[in-house]
Amino acid sequence: MTDSKAENSEYITKGSVKLKKKSVLRKILVPQKEVARKNRIILGILAFVLILLFWSWITYGKIVGTMFVPTPSSTFSALTNMLSTGFWSDISITIYRVMTGFFIALIVALPLGILVGAYQPIAAFFEPVFSFVRYMPASAFIPLFIFWIGIGESEKIAIIILGSLPQLVLMIANDIRNVDQSLIEVSYTLGTNTLNVLWKVILPKSLPDIMNTIRIVLGWAWTYVIVAELVGASSGIGFSILQAERTFQIDRIFVGILILGIIGLIVDTVLTLLNKILFAWNF
Amino acid sequence: MDESIEVKNVSKKFHTKNGDVQALSDINLTVHDKEFVSIIGRSGCGKSTLLRIIGGLETASNGEVKCHSHEIDGPGSDRGMVFQHYSLFPWMTVKRNVEFGLKQKGTNKKTRSEIAEKYIDLVGLKEFENLYPKNLSGGMQQRVALARGLANDPEVLLLDEPFGALDMQTREDMQDLLLDIWQKSPKTIVMVTHDVEEAILLANRVVIMSSHPGKIKKILKIELGEQRRFETRLTSEFLKYKGIASKLIRSK
Ligand SMILES: Nc1ncnc2c1ncn2[C@@H]1O[C@H](COP(=O)(O)OP(=O)(O)O)[C@@H](O)[C@H]1O
Ligand SMILES: [Mg+2]
Hints:
The structure holds two protein chains of two kinds.
Chain A: H1 4-10, H2 14-28, H3 37-60, H4 72-84, H5 87-118, H6 120-134, H7 142-149, H8 153-177, H9 181-188, H10 197-230, H11 237-246, H12 250-278
Chain B: E1 3-16, E2 19-32, E3 36-40, H1 47-55, E4 62-67, E5 70-71, E6 79-82, H2 94-105, H3 109-122, H4 138-151, E7 156-160, H5 168-184, E8 188-193, H6 196-202, E9 205-210, E10 215-221, H7 236-250
Parallel strand pairs in B: 3-8, 3-9, 6-7, 7-8
Antiparallel strand pairs in B: 1-2, 1-4, 4-5, 9-10
Helix pairs in contact in B: 2-3, 2-4, 3-4, 6-7
């Protein structure tokens, strides 16, 4: 008898072809297995294409009325129309609100989070309060803030600060705590002391994680600003969505929501990239 | 000979949720200047705890520990440590890792660089000095950790199973390296290991510990001469020491 492997491959029946197909899928779907960068990008784009196809199908195919879902083309023309009639200023005011509020929150949260993470007495004092505030939805404070500070810019910014500050403090504190004890210990035996170990070891080690925390919480800050703009505002992306709803311009609502997603995606990608460039040692 | 480290009547009790653990009981040990001492014993017998107490990372419940006649009060750069899992600073290149201790001391940049290069060369990592730790194999990372510990020139070097995570071949290479370094410029070294051969090959004395509670069972003086090599393992004296030590470790 000849080599049994060769013999097997000669007699592939229809049944075994099916089996072979299944094993290809099995090969691709291995938990945690890495996928080539190129394929990852293709798969990501594929999802967007499928959504676009589905959207086209239900609108152009008249499965859903354009009263409820606008067609991709009318959404696109609404976008160009809006951009030429002042939508840019709505976009920029929203970005301005998020960035200002988030930046103020970050300036306070960074040192505070580091201290809470590094020193247990400070954590014991601050953590319960921040954990409590964290579970009070920022949007619930909108009526109160309007009552206190009116419906100007400071109210929107205050909402964002309130929403992101506790999250930032608690998550940064956690990033600091995640630094391996053995790294701290070895640095003591190399001559650092309890004061400079924070700057020389703990902080540099946790910086990529802190950067990641900033990226995540910034994403949440986006949702707070929209809520704030839906209540008592006269500009911004949230406001323009509300305006469109009042005038039944469903395509303009779509534009507002899509723009939010696109800006969010861009910011997220830039921060992820920045993290990889700044902290190459970590990737 | 001068005493470098003195451990007198040291006990250590850990208080845990499931009650107290007597990790060490009545330990007495003197390590002389430029002596190499290995500590060996079953896992959980308190080897790391003893080393950490000398390193100042843990405090003794009873007794006293001195380094060059000074009571030990916390960790310091006079007692460098190398751990099993390397603990390199991942955001620093090999060279900056090795320079770290010198920088803390305020050594100027030029001297720092020279010393670091000398030790990086010594552990055979010259071409790798600008890489980050994550780009190195386990054995290479441990070489860096060793170079980092040596470059700081501590009075005592404390090694906690430094080669425990390495494969056998690499481990033997590292033992040769350490032997070579120590023979060229003797240092006070205390090394914890669970490898009997490693303990005997490198040390002037081997401390054998028993567990629960951790006690010193016996201290073996190893007289294999000054010039030891890999082949020393094959000599009959070496095998004799190995037999005695293994029996002592196994006996209750
Ligand atoms: N931080 C700790 N808290 C509680 N128990 C500990 C602690 N460290 C060590 N022990 C206990 O002390 C004993 C000795 O541990 P260790 O010194 O790590 O042993 P070895 O290094 O010889 O394996 C073990 O029983 C261990 O569980
Ligand atoms: Mg141990």
